[in-house]
C-alpha cells in the first residue's frame, strides 16, 4: 500500500499512519513482518541527475539508534535547528557557505567598533588549528571570540552540535577552521545515492580524521582503487541495482560485487580516501594534456572572494574559469576600497575588482602545474541555482548546462587570451 505525504483524493495519507490507522489487522501485519528479511527492498531513491537522467537506486534498510529529522526548506533551517537541537547534522558545503556568508554580513553591519571586533574574531577563526599548541594569550583570545561571536553562531544551530558531516562536494579548509573555532567539528565524508549512506567519513577522534580527505571507510564497507584510479566500493550498503534498469546496473556493479563509482581517488596511508575528480569530467586541452577540473575548482574556491567556479578548456589552448564571486565578502572589500558596490553588475565591471580576482587566481596557482593553471576568467553577476537548472537538487553543478548557458562568457575568455 502507498501512503502519500500530501493529501490525495481517494487515497489514505501518511498522516493516518502517524496518527494510527483504525481497524488494524494485527495478525496480517505480524505475518508480513515475519516475512521481511534484511535483503528485502526498503526504498527507491533517485539520483540527482547531474550526469544524465535520474536513476532509481534500490536500497535495503539500514538501522541505527539515532533520531533523524528532515527539513522542509532551507529558509526555515534556523528555526528547525533550534527546535530539533541536533548533536550531528549532514550538509552540503553550500549550506555551510551560506551560514558563513550570513555571519560575515552580520559582522559587516553596525558601528566601527563592532566591525573591528568581528574582523578580529574572523581572523582568529580562520587561523584556528586544534592540533597546534595554544599559548595562554591565544586561549584567552579564543575564549573572548566565543563569548562575543562564535557561541551565538553555535546557538543559532541549536547549541548542541558536536560534529557536522559535509558531503556532495569538496569543502573549503577555511570553513573547517572557522566552524572548529566555534566548537563545531566539521568533517568531510563521501557517499553516493547508490551506497545508501557514507562510504567513508572522518571521525571525531583525531587519529581517524585527516583534513583534505573524506576519511576512512565505515565499518563493514570495503574501498579499493582500480588501476585507472576509479574508486570501487563493496558492502551491504551498496544498492541492489537500478529500478527496472538491469542494463545500467550491469554497467556499474561487476561480477564480484564491486560498485564502480565513476569517481577518481587515492588512499592515503592505505585508509584515508582522497577524491581527485570524476572519470567523465576529465577533458583534454588542444595540446593533448588531460585536466581533472574538480580538484582545481576545490583549490580556487579557497579564495574568500570566490563563491563557486567552473573550470573549462575542452579542446582549447589553456584552462579558463567561470567565477561566481562571494558577493558579501566582495561588497565588504569594495566598501573598504571605495569601489561602487550597489549591484553585482557594478562590482564585477570595475577594473579594481578584476585586478583583485587576478591576484587571487595567481596566488592560488603557485603550486599547480603550469598547464592546469587558470589563464583567463569571466566574472558572473549571479549565483548558479536549481531553479535555473544549473544545480542539481543536491546543489551539484550541472556542468553541461552551465557550459551551454554561459558559452559567450567562455568564448570571451579565449578571445581575451588570443
How is the secondary structure organized here?
Layout: H1 14-19, H2 26-34, E1 41-46, E2 56-60, H3 77-84, E3 88-91, H4 93-108, H5 112-126, H6 136-156, E4 163-166, H7 173-181, E5 185-191, E6 198-201, E7 222-225, E8 230-234, E9 241-242, H8 246-252, E10 259-268, E11 272-278, E12 283-284, E13 290-291, H9 293-300, E14 306-312, E15 319-325, H10 327-336, H11 344-349, H12 351-364, E16 374-379, H13 399-405, H14 407-417
Parallel strand pairs: 3-4, 4-5, 15-16
Antiparallel strand pairs: 1-2, 2-9, 5-6, 7-8, 8-10, 10-11, 12-13, 14-15
Helix pairs in contact: 5-6, 5-7
Descriptive key words:
single chain, 418 residues, alpha+beta, 4-stranded mixed sheet, 4-stranded antiparallel sheet, 14 helices
Q: What does it look like?
A:
The chain has 418 residues and is α+β, with helices and mostly antiparallel strands. It contains 14 helices and 16 strands. The chain has helices at residues 14-19, 26-34, 77-84, 93-108, 112-126, 136-156, 173-181, 246-252, 293-300, 327-336, 344-349, 351-364, 399-405, 407-417; strands at 41-46, 56-60, 88-91, 163-166, 185-191, 198-201, 222-225, 230-234, 241-242, 259-268, 272-278, 283-284, 290-291, 306-312, 319-325, 374-379. The strands form five sheets. A four-stranded mixed beta sheet has the order 3-4-5-6. Strands 7-8-10-11 form a four-stranded antiparallel beta sheet. A three-stranded antiparallel beta sheet has the order 1-2-9. A hairpin with a 3-residue loop joins strand 10 (259-268) and strand 11 (272-278). It starts with 13 loop residues before the first helix and ends with a helix. The mean pLDDT is 88.
